[in-house]
Amino acid sequence: MTIAQDISLASSDKTAPVLRVENVSKRFGTFTVLQSCSISVSEGEIVTLLGSSGCGKTTLLRCIAGFWAPEEGMILIDGHNTVPVPVNRRPVGVVFQSYALFPHLTVEGNVAYGLRMRGVPRSEISRRVADALESVSLRGFENRYPSQLSGGQQQRVAIARVLVLEPRVLLLDEPFNALDAKLRGTMQIELRELIKRLGMTAIFVTHDQEEALTMSDRIAVMQGGRIEQVAPPDEIFDRPATAYVADFIGLSNFIPCKVRDGKVTLPDGQSVATKESDTVKVMIRPHNLRVTAQGTGPWQGQVRFQRNIGPLIEYIVTAGEAEIRVVAMRQDRTRPWSEGDAISLEVIDPEYCTIYPAV
């Protein structure tokens, strides 16, 4: 029995995490790329590693896949430490950015390739390839070559080639990079629905926050080789744990304020309770602000920039020394504020603001 087979047999406990990364660190020479990263992924869960270039997300995925070995920590699949397990014996499947399809093989040949390398009987290969192509809606495409497929179809072949191996954990390394914006949006929904329908456990890597919010059950935001926060998309967006997460996810305004008697008074006069002390910075999302006529409140400003973004209108308002972003739904506007207009700002929901230490 191979180690990978032994690992797959340990998956009967549905309450235990399928994947557990414990204090993983990775260095290249003297440069530390990952610093004590820990995360658990449950059965059927999609977790996204999200961060800017160089944050360590792809390095962590490659350590899970077995392409690189960490200097410290463990990577457990169904309770078995896979760090010493060779990449070709780990119960994982990887979908790469470039799809890495063999141009000289048909769709069927590409999907069957891994099974043939493992010596699977021909009759079983035919059945499993047919099932995999059915799962990604590519039945009837068996005899086509990659050059005869669209970008979205090529991606589905790459996914089928992984699914046919029946991996315990599906790893996806920015699989939408080669697609245009409209197709990316469509494929994000299709891929999430496919993974959920198949009940697979998946790690998804991206630098695109909108993609992460669409695809994920939970998001792990990374910075400088560390995991800053792991939480569901709504919590990541509404209650970011650190100022970095707040700044990275969506648009944010950071307003310096003073704490007095356990409360922060916002520039529009409303207050928010806090356990912080002294000087803090308050994060206010642009859609949590309302632009009104000047004179209706104490927070005065002037519209410096205005643009239409489809169903939204974005304003940049100069208020004292600060530049404040405001986003409003087109149908909610009381009037089309223009550049140079004197206005007032008002926080729509003070409880939706998040407070961080000033440093």
From TrEMBL:
One GO term in the molecular function aspect is: ATP binding
Q: Which PROSITE patterns does the record match to this protein?
A: ABC_TRANSPORTER_1, ABC_TRANSPORTER_2
**GO annotation, cellular component aspect:** ATP-binding cassette (ABC) transporter complex
Please state the span of the N-terminal signal peptide per the UniProt entry: none
A Pfam family cross-referenced in the UniProt record is ABC_tran
Write the record's keywords in alphabetical order, separated by commas: ATP-binding, Nucleotide-binding, Transport
| Residues of the ABC transporter domain | 19-249
Q: What is this protein called?
A: ABC transporter ATP-binding protein
